[in-house]
Amino acid sequence: MALIKREQIAGMNIHYMRYTLDYFLDAQVKAGIQSIEFWTGVPHYYLDPITYSDCKILKDKVQSRGLEIKVFTPENCMYQYQFAAVKPEIFEKSLQYFTNGIKATAELGCKVMQCNSGWGYFDEDREEAWKRSNEMLSKLAEVAKAEGVTLALEALRPEESNLVTTAKDTKRMFDEINHPNLKVLIDTTAMGVAGETLQDWFDLFGKDIIHTHFVDGDPYGHLVWGDGKHNLEQFLITLQKNGYTGYLGQEITDSRYFKDPVAHDIRNMKQFERFM
Fold first, then answer.
1. What is the Cα–Cα distance from 58 to 44, expressed in whole angstroms?
2. Mean pLDDT in residue range 49-67
3. CATH tag for 6-273 (out of 3.40.440.10, 1.20.1250.20, 3.40.50.620, 3.20.20.150)
4. What share of the chain is helix, strand, coil (3-state, %, to 5)?
5. What is the predicted pLDDT for the residue at 87?
């Protein structure tokens, strides 16, 4: 049963953070992956409010292997830059950090950059943090428009954020910003933790869903398919039923995969190959 095309599977480099960029790219070729969602963590790429790595060098390395970067994902969970940063200094530095991320996305010939709501302090008024997130994302959507890039907004887990953690939260932020360059990303882990389904998200957003972080879970964990409790076939059927043609980002972050990431990518792809 053909439910997915090979080029829709987008390999990610988070679980290769202890390996070189060249090793990661060669591993994707070995695993039979053609598309990349590129995470900007060091040592693979450097991005800050002032500067960022040479996109031509990265693009040449990717293209020489017959790969393509389809989604650009600035690191925004482990480092200090986030979308609801407190004003003024951290907010402005975060704004410039993500602005540089959008510019790099465009230079790479990529059309989509991942984003989320960021988070507020748990001991402050949530609505104050919400306003900062809204302001940041609204500003960045305008930058994205100028650069020909679309932002893809995902929900986080409650441990990561007190802002956008559910489909309902995502809908509120999406509607408030109401910008053509801000669309929606489904993260199946955040979705599972929230007790939601893929269909719940498609019922709310339809064609405004342009990307997914499409991984197994229990419901926690960003796991290789087969290591969690999600039903891959049913998930793919839901995507097909709703006319989804975007990419499936393999945001594999559990530390169990860090030691031999290529073996896990190969194992992961074998799960998908049953439906190609």
1. 9
2. 98
3. 3.20.20.150
4. 45, 15, 40
5. 83
Burial string for 180-204 (b: 16+ CB within 10 Å, else e) reads: ebbbbbbbbbbbbbbebbbebbbeb
Residue 145, Cβ neighbours under 10 Å: how many?
16
d(CA 231, CA 225): 9
Task: Give pTM, 2 decimals.
Answer: 0.97
Contact 153, 184 (CB under 8 A): yes
Residue 78, pLDDT score: 79
- Cβ 186 vs Cβ 215: under 8 Å: no
Distances (CA, A) of 137 to 79, 118, 151, 211, 232: 18, 10, 9, 17, 32
Share of the chain above pLDDT 70, in %: 100
